[in-house]
Amino acid sequence: MKGLAISFRDIEHSDAIEHQIREKAAKLTSTYDDITGIRAVVALPHNHSYKGRIAHVSLEIGLPGEVVAITHDHHDNSDHENMYVALRDAFDKANRKIRKIHERRVDRTRRPATLTAQSA
């Protein structure tokens, strides 16, 4: 696994949550080879206006030349009382964003070859 940093805020360290993050990060890095590092922050802050505690998962994923930031602050999503659902949603969003960037980069590298072939 390329550079993975996991932080817990307002919550005790959990081996199960860390294992889940490592699995999802490994899957993401195996799909996209150009990922240089991942930083995950898991928090369970006190929400005084809400009876339950909503999990917050933030990801920073390093790519050559840019960093993809995923912040999941769903104060009104009661599904995120479950930390595993919050993790799943954050990594799904990261996968979609990285796929768009990857497709844009691949398209950019293919486009000049197509233009030169047409002009010949």
TrEMBL record:
Signal peptide, first to last residue: none
Record Gene3D superfamilies: Ribosome hibernation promotion factor-like (3.30.160.100)
Pfam families, A to Z: Ribosomal_S30AE (PF02482)
Protein name: HPF/RaiA family ribosome-associated protein
Organism per entry: Parathalassolituus penaei
